[in-house]
Amino acid sequence: MKRAITLLRRRAISSIPVLLIVVIFTFFMLESASGDAVDAYLGSIGGGDAVLRQSLRESYGLDRSMLARLWLYLSSLARLDLGWSVAFGRPVGELIAERLPNTLLLMGSATALSFGLGSALGILAGARPGSLRDRLLSIGSLIVYAVPSFWLGLVLTIVFSVKLRWLPIAGIETIASGKTGFSRALDISDHLVLPVGALALIYLALFLRVMRAGMAEAWKLDFVLFARAKGLSRSRIVLRHVARNALLPLVTMLGLQSAAMLGGSVVIESVFAIPGFGRLAQEAVNGRDAPLLMGIIVTSAVLVISVNFLVDLVYAALDPRIGASEGSA
Amino acid sequence: MTEPSISRRTLMKGTALLLASTALARHASAQAAPAGGRLIVAADSEPKNLNPAIVASNGVFFIASKVIEPLAEAAFDGKDGLAPRLATSWKGSADGLSVTFKLRDGVTWHDGKPFTSADVAFSALNIWKPLQNLGRLVFANLEAVDTPDDYTAIFRFSKPTPFQLIRNALPVVTSVVAKHIFDGSDIAANPANNTLVGTGPFKFAEHKPGEYYRLARNEDYWDKGQPKLDEIVFRVLPDRGSAGAALEADEIQLAAFSAVPLADLDRISKVDGIKVFSKGYEALTYQLVVEINHRRKELTDLRVRQAIAHAIDKKFVVDTIFLGYAAASTGPVPKNAPEFYTSDVASYDFNLAAANDILDKAGYPKGSDGTRFKLKLRPAPYFNETRQFGDYLRQALAGIGIDAEIVNADAAAHQKAVYTDHDFDLAVGPPVFRGDPAISTTILVQSGTPAGVPFSNQGGYVNPELDKIILQASETVDTAARTDLYRKFQQLVVADLPLINVAEWGFITVARDTVLNVSNNPRWAVSNWGDTALQS
């Protein structure tokens, strides 16, 4: 426990310069793009005159110099104030707080499902490398992995919502239903089945393949040969020796995938009309909403840093060698 | 049914827009409709400012027009194409210096306060004229609004202002908001811009960001017997594929503004219980225009512009890109504006040989690689069709030896590149015709617009003769003379081609059979839906 807290403190301090670099880099990336929030807004409302354009630029602070704006942003960020969204006309912090839970729910469920099912299927495939079962699972996972997630989402919708009408088509819950408590939770889980399924299937394939590869590798290791020579049962070898050893790279990948899944959720949230973080990012880009986009990127960075921290803790628990070196350093 | 007996399949074929504007224009009284029910509609965006008095745009009207009403709405069969709303009559003075509105008696705001001429005067002077994106132009010379009594508002102009323009602009620029809510506040920052209080058939009930807007029935609506519906829910569906699927699954009952992609229409129109409407957008006709940068040497040559016009196969564009849901343009005023439209303009038939010939004679010979010169082409990102036309135009130009390089960008970058930096040679734009050429059409070719004004003369075209006509029309009070000036305007524009009008289109509404009284006015999607009902 004490080791974990030391690790956390060290991580927190080392991530401040990382965040600063991310913010400044994003700021200049946005600056270098042609056009700004006022251009995007006037285009979306079908026109306006030069005076209107100027007054909007002033009210958004876009008439100030680039460095003045960067300084203003950084100083408000230091006070943990994420600023004011241009495209939504609301505080960025409020918008993020509103949308983040939906995405965490979506990503969390999808990660759990893809990791759990992916590693289980990976064990099945890797238990007998080269067998028919292994080949079928490997080819199947390759096909699923190659499918674009928006397409998978649409196909699932057409089959399960339009044709069979088993599941709702889109949204996070039935609109304006007035449901509360347990029935609301049930309603939300109903709505999550398809988007979580679509998002999880893609990553499931990835976890399956990594697990399977790790196991195929482990079969050749000396301690597995020894276990076999000892005459241990096959199921015991698979679970205790081979699978456990192959799980380590999977945990590493879990950390890396958390970042990728944030990107994948942009598409899934659009297709399934889930008011989440990914869609907010898309709207921020479309509206050239610099403060909102920066807020989203900072939050994502914090999210990825925390997930990686958690993964490190799990890793340390699985493999004592790693924890020991971190603790003694 | 109110529609004449034209089958869906006939409508599908080609002339939908024309049919909509002529044959379908006469329609009977509203369907005897059952009351009650919740109508769920697809919405693809959530405007930052929902106040139509400040932001006159279709995205805002789509939701806000059910809550906040204009002085008059467009109508297929009303006098001058208008139906009364908050005003019951309107009359312009002979000198063009005033317009008198008689206002409806017995109207209350959703918060119970009475609606009076003070609200109209306040909206006109404090919002439409100084703040609204389109009203700034229409009401530029508005000096005062007299309110001799609670139900009369007299608009006074500092310069003669054509009554025809004011009349045509009524549906778009005159959304009335309550004085008691906005007076004395910072209007642009007032929270009432998003939690609307109006006089319309529906009250603003709830906005759940990212999910839906909910509007509830106004029990005290002035038009007794309306609204029919208990609730309208605008469900946010950003993905176009989902809108069609949601309709099929009956999770939504209506999708307007072509929320269902054109490519899906043929399939979805065959689904039982679903209907496709191509009318109801006549007063908001979009135009597909090739914008030309007249700062570019080759393009200042009329012959080059003529050759480009000859190279565009408008029929192909209408049939292939719009799948028939559009009409070929003849000039800057669409056929759906019969008050102004003239077909008596120059025409440029599709003829590659003639185009090549013109360019040869104009002194732009093909080089050894078959290319005469290169151009930078920027298609606007707003619609699939503008982007697709960009691809088509590139091919069409290749056919006459012009090598166009396509530069795609998002809305912000496109706006800046074309309208501020003028970093383009050709652009593809979708301007909207809004009932009168003076509102958003003449600005496309008038000289002297400063850089940065969206949907303006970004090509830097200067034609003193055309400018004179535009100026004259803006001050001509006599309706016949003014209409005549706009006929000349069309002829001049088509003759000199400051831009090339290719096609004009409305949108498509797809609805379940159970939704009644759909598309029964020329701005239906952005009108109040008081008579829209659900068959139980």
TrEMBL record, chain A:
- List membrane-spanning regions: 12-30, 104-124, 136-160, 192-211, 246-272, 292-318
Q: List the GO terms this entry assigns under cellular component, sorted alphabetically.
A: plasma membrane
Cellular location(s): Cell membrane
Annotated keywords:
Cell membrane, Membrane, Plasmid, Transmembrane, Transmembrane helix, Transport
- Domain of life of the native organism: Bacteria
Task: Note the topology in the membrane.
Answer: Multi-pass membrane protein
Biological-process GO terms, alphabetical: transmembrane transport
Q: Which family does it belong to?
A: Belongs to the binding-protein-dependent transport system permease family.
Q: What is this protein called?
A: Oligopeptide ABC transporter permease protein
Naturally occurring in which organism (per UniProt): Rhizobium etli
Taxonomy of the source species: Bacteria, Pseudomonadati, Pseudomonadota, Alphaproteobacteria, Hyphomicrobiales
Automatic annotation (TrEMBL), chain B:
Subcellular localization(s) per the UniProt record: Periplasm
InterPro entries, from UniProt? Peptide/Ni-bd (IPR030678), SBP_5 (IPR039424), SBP_5_dom (IPR000914), TAT_signal (IPR006311)
Task: Provide the Solute-binding protein family domain boundaries.
Answer: 82-429
Example GO molecular function: peptide transmembrane transporter activity
Annotated Gene Ontology cellular components are: ATP-binding cassette (ABC) transporter complex; outer membrane-bounded periplasmic space
Extent of the signal sequence: 1-32
Q: Which domain of life is it from?
A: Bacteria
Give GO BP annotations, semicolon-separated.
Answer: peptide transport
Q: Which Pfam families match?
A: SBP_bac_5 (PF00496)
**Which of UniProt's keywords are assigned here?**
Plasmid, Signal, Transport
What family is reported? Belongs to the bacterial solute-binding protein 5 family.
**In its UniProt entry, what is this protein called?**
Probable oligopeptide ABC transporter, substrate-binding protein
**Source organism of the structure:** Rhizobium etli (strain ATCC 51251 / DSM 11541 / JCM 21823 / NBRC 15573 / CFN 42)
